């Protein structure tokens, strides 16, 4: 996999290193997207573009979709949807839910994770705060509220590997966790 040169954050680098482990990714769905005009948020799209990977965005908050299209996101690349409603999106080689699990009630996410996994053919990646990080609705988006906290053991028992960054960000500097599962091994 070719990785374009740019200033990746340490959190984004976790995904870059994970993607290097997977060959021949042809399709990529990212769940959640805010602020199309901020090119820093295009880091995974840039990776897709240089590798000729068909990318899509599924976003739960309608106003984010409207804003992205109005700011230049191609309409055929973004749609309103919910990762929990697996019948509403196609299978993809890679599924990325970047800072997403903390926005779903723990029990609901765990009840649906196998169905979500069934939509990925090569790899599934989740990024989230490590542990508890309080956050209410942001920019009028109720879906931005943090309603669950996650630790490595929550995913290890389901066969996921993890990378934890104690980067001083988040609640009490707890940081970030990226978990992933390479499928078909």
Q: Tell me the CATH superfamily.
A: Vaccinia Virus protein VP39
Strand order of the largest sheet: 3-2-1-4-5-7-6
CATH class: Alpha Beta
Residues in helices, as a percent range: 10-25%
Looking at the structure, what is the overall shape? Answer: globular
Brief rundown of the structure:
The chain has 5 helices and 7 strands, in the order αβαβαββαβαββ.
Secondary-structure topology with pairs:
Blueprint lengths: L9 H10 L7 E5 L11 H8 L3 E6 L2 H9 L7 E3 L11 E7 L7 H12 L2 E10 L22 H5 L4 E5 L10 E7 L3
Structural features, described:
With about 180 residues, the protein is an alpha/beta fold. The chain has a single domain (about 20-175), classed as Rossmann fold (3-Layer(aba) Sandwich). The protein contains five helices and seven strands, in the order αβαβαββαβαββ. It has helices at about 10-20, 45-50, 60-70, 105-115, 150-155, and strands at about 25-30, 55-60, 80, 90-100, 120-130, 160-165, 175-180. Strands 3-2-1-4-5-7-6 form a seven-stranded mixed sheet. The radius of gyration is 15 Å and the shape is globular. The model has no long low-confidence stretch (mean pLDDT about 90).
List keywords for this structure.
185 residues; alpha/beta; Rossmann fold; seven-stranded mixed β-sheet; 5 helices; globular
């Amino acid at each position: 996999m070719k990785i374009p040169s740019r200033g990746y954050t340490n959190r984004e680098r976790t995904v870059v290193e994970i993607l290097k482990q997977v060959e021949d990714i042809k399709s990529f769905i990212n769940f959640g997207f805010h602020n199309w005009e901020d090119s820093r948020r295009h880091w995974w799209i840039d990776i897709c573009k240089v590798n000729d990977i068909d990318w899509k965005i599924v976003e739960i908050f309608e106003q984010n979709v409207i804003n992205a299209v109005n700011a230049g996101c191609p309409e055929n690349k973004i749609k309103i949807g919910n990762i929990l409603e697996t019948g509403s999106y196609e299978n993809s080689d890679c599924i990325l839910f970047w800072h997403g699990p903390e926005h779903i009630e723990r029990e609901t996410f765990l009840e649906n994770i196998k169905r979500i996994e069934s939509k990925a053919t090569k790899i599934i990646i989740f990024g989230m705060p490590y542990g508890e990080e309080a956050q209410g609705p942001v920019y009028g988006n109720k879906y931005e509220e943090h309603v669950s906290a996650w630790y490595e053991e929550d995913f290890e028992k389901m066969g996921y590997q993890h990378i934890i960054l104690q980067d001083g960000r988040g609640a009490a500097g707890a940081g970030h966790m990226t978990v992933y599962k390479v499928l078909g091994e």
